[in-house]
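Chain and conformation:
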Amino acid sequence: MSSHALHVRRWRIAIVLTALVAIVYFGFILLIAYHKELMGTLLNPGLSVGILLGALVIVASWTLTWFYVRWANTKYDDALAEINRNEAR
């Protein structure tokens, strides 16, 4: 894999993951703004739909970050090291 191809792949993954985080976050904010009744619905005493979805936004952000870090540590770093070895020769 060339350094340019690796660069393009990293940016594609970063943009897709950034878009997913933005969709999750802004979707949550839009629900708060336009569906207050839904967000205030109690599922159990002390647990509303809004609190549950807020926690899920955090978990989704952590999960997407974990996915990127895992990909970078296993695929990206190995490919970059290979490119650097080839260029050093």
